[in-house]
Amino acid sequence: MEATVSQAPTTQSDSQRDLLVVKHLKKYFPVRGGLLKRVVAQVKAVDDISFTIRKGETFGLVGESGCGKTTAGRTILRLIEPTAGQVFFEGKDIAKAKAGEMKRLRRDMQIIFQDPYSSLDPRMVIGESIAEGLVAHGIGTAREREQTVLRVLRDVGLHPEHARRYPHEFSGGQRQRIGIARALALRPKFIVCDEPVSALDVSIQSQVLNILRSLQRQYGLTYMFVAHNLSVVEHISDRVGVMYLGKMMELADREEMYSNPLHPYTKALMSAIPIPDPNLKRERIILKGDVPSPLRPPPGCVFHTRCPIAQKGLCDKEIPAFRNVGQTREHWIACHLVGDKEGN
Amino acid sequence: METVDNILEIHNLKTYFFTEDGEVHAVDGVDLEVRRGETLGVVGESGCGKSVTFMSVLRLVGMPGRIVEGNVVFNGQSLLELPESEMVQIRGNKIAMIFQQPISSLNPVFKVGDQVAEVFETHQGLNHEQAVQRAVEMLAQVGIPDAKRRAESYPHEMSGGMAQRVMIAMGLAMTPELLIADEPTTALDVTIQAQILDLMRALKERIGMSIVFITHDLGVVAEMADHVAVMYAGQIVEYTDVGTIFREPKMPYTQGLLGSIPVLGVIKDELDSIPGTVPNLVDPPNACRFAPRCRARVEHGLTICEQAEPQLLPVGSTTHKVRCWLYHDCPSLNYVAPHSTGIAAEPRLEPSATPARA
C-alpha cells in the first residue's frame, strides 16, 4: 500500500505519448471575512489531482456541480494560478513559466466556454473576435488574418458573410461554433472544452459534438472535455476522469470506465442517468443527501458521507490513496474498499 | 372525443405573444389530453411552446402574451371561461405547478416553512400555528431530513435539491388532482435528479394524481411517462405511448431527436444531427414547420410539405398520432403519401382568418 500511495498516474509519463502531465495540482480559493478581510477559510476547489493527457486524445473530466472540474481546466491553462502542483505541457512546467513564455504557450492552448454568448464581445463583429488572438500574438498580415478567419468559419460550418455580423444575430448553436472557430484560429495543439454543449438543445448539441470530433481528426487536436453529462463524455472521450469535491475519484480509459466502474461514486453516478429506453430495468443506486460544502469537506474520503459502503473508522478517517488497480490497462481509483480483488 | 378518463383536454389552443417584432405564435393549435392517473411526458427543445402551453392551461400567461383561441377542459369544466376568482381555487388546489428553478420560485425573504404554510392558510383557512404544523409534516413527507428545523431555513440556505423538495411539498400540499412539473430536475445534478424522480413516483402512487412532465430530456421521459407528446415550433408533432415513441418513432423530427442524443453504453462514431435550427415563430409558414430541416422530405422529394400544413392524425393504432405528410394523403391536392396509412388530411392552405379572442 505504502509504495503505491505516492504514485500518481504521472509516474509512468512518457514524453512521446503525453501532451500534458498534471502532478498534484491544487487550487484553494481563500474566503475572506471580518473587519480586516482575513482569510477565514479555504475552498479546496481542486485538491491534489494528478493525470496525464495523451497526444491526440480526448480526456473527459466529469463530475457534478462544484466538484472542481471547471477550476481544474482553467488552472491547467493558468487562467487561474494554481496553489500548488505542476502542469507540464510538452515537458515544460507552465506553472513556472514567465509572462513571455506563457504568452507563447497560450497559442498552443485554447479554451471553449459553456456560454458562447457571454464569451463573445457584443460590440465586435465575429470576424474581429475570431482574429483577436491573431492580432494579440502578431500573427500574419491583415490579409492573412482575414484568410484565417474565413478558413476557420468554414471549418465550423459557417459562411464567409457571417464574419461581418454581431453575436446577437446568431443562435446558441451558431455562437458555440464561433467559440470553436475562435479557439481554432491560432492553430492550437490543445483545447479545453468547458461544458461546450450543455447550454444547447439536443439537436444542436449533436451538431457541435460532430464538429469537435471532425476537427480533432483534421488538425490532430488534443481535447480536455469538461462536462457533467456522462453520456456526452462517453461519446466523445478516449479516457475519462471522475471528480468529486475537488478530488479525482476514478480514472480509466472510456471502455474500462463505463463497462467496469469500480468506485462507489462512479457507480451511483452512472446508475442515476436516465436512459432513453422505457423497457430497460436497472438497479438504481440512489445516493442520500447532498454534496457537502467544499468549505468544509468531510475528513477521510470526501465521499464517505454519501457512500453506500463506507466503513466507520476507516473511510471517515483516512484519505484513500489514488492508485492503479488495473492489471492489463490503467484503472486508477481512490477508494479504500474496492479495486483490489474485484473487477479486472 | 371520449371524455370519461381524461382529466385534462386541450383543444386547438393558441397562445400568441404580441411583441414589437410581430406576433410570436408560441402555441399554435395544440390538441392534447391527459388521462386520469397517468404521467404525460411533454418533450421538445427550447422555444417549442411546451411551457407556454401549460402556463396557458393555468391562465398564467402574462403580457404581451395572450390566449387567442382554444379551449381547456379540466374535469369537464372549461377553464378559459371561469372568472378569475374561481380560477384561484383551481390553481394550487386542483392543479399545482412546479418549476425548473426552485430557488428563484421561492420568496427569498420568508422562511420556507412559512411559505408552505401559506398554502394551508389560503386554501384551508388554518391559523398560522396549525398551518406551520401541517407544513412541517409536508416537508417531512417529501424527504427533507429534520423537517422542523429546516422549516426555519430561508431559500438561500438550501441546496437546489432541497429547494425543489420544498416546491414539491408546496405543490402537493392540497393533494392536487393534476401536477404540472415544468423541467423540475433540469437544474439539478444527476444524483439529486434521481432522488427527486424517485420521490415524484412515490408521491404519485400515494396520492393517485396525474402528472404532466415537461422536459427536454428523453431519458427522463422514458423513465417517468406513460404517454408522450413531442412538440415542435408551437405544435404537437407526435403523440403515443412511451414504448412506441422509443421503438417506432414516426415523425422525422422525433427520429432525429432520438438519434442525436448520446446514450450511455452505446458507442457511435458520429451522432445523427438535425441540420439547421428551429424556425422563427413570428408568422411561421402555414405549412410543415419542420420541412426546412427535414431529411425525409428531401429523400422522398415531397413538395406538399412546403405548401400545406399537415395535421395531427392517427397512424396505425388510434393512439399513435403524427403531424407529417409522410403518412397522410391529401385528396384535394391529389397527393398520396409515401407511407400512406389511408387516412386523409384536409389541409388549410390559407391562414385561417380567426378573430382574436381575449
Descriptive notes:
The complex is a heterodimer of chains A (344) and B (358). In chain A, helix 4 runs parallel beside helix 6 and helix 6 runs parallel beside helix 7. The N terminus of chain A is likely disordered. Chain A has 344 residues and is of the alpha/beta class. Chain A is built from 10 helices and 12 strands. The longest helix of chain A is centred in the middle third of the chain and has 18 residues. Chain A starts with a helix and ends in an 11-residue tail after the last strand. With 358 residues, chain B is an alpha/beta fold. Chain B has 12 helices and 14 strands. In chain B, the strands form 3 sheets. An 8-stranded mixed β-sheet of chain B has the order 6-7-8-3-9-10-12-11, with helices on both faces. The longest helix of chain B has 18 residues. Chains A and B meet through helix 7, helix 8 and helix 10 of A and helix 8, helix 9, helix 10 and helix 11 of B.
Cα-based radius of gyration of chain B, to the nearest Å: 22 Å
Classify the beta-strand content of chain B into a percent band: 15-25%
Biggest sheet overview of chain B: 8 strands, mixed
State the share of residues found in helices of chain B, binned by percent. 25-40%
User: Which structural class matches the secondary elements of chain B?
Assistant: alpha/beta
Rg of chain A, rounded, reads 21 Å
Quick one: biggest sheet of chain A?
Answer: 8 strands, mixed
Count the helices of chain B. How many? 12
Oligomer: heterodimer
Terminal CA distance of chain B reads 26 Å
Percent helix range of chain A: 25-40%
Choose one word for the global shape of chain A: globular
**Total of helices of chain A:** 10
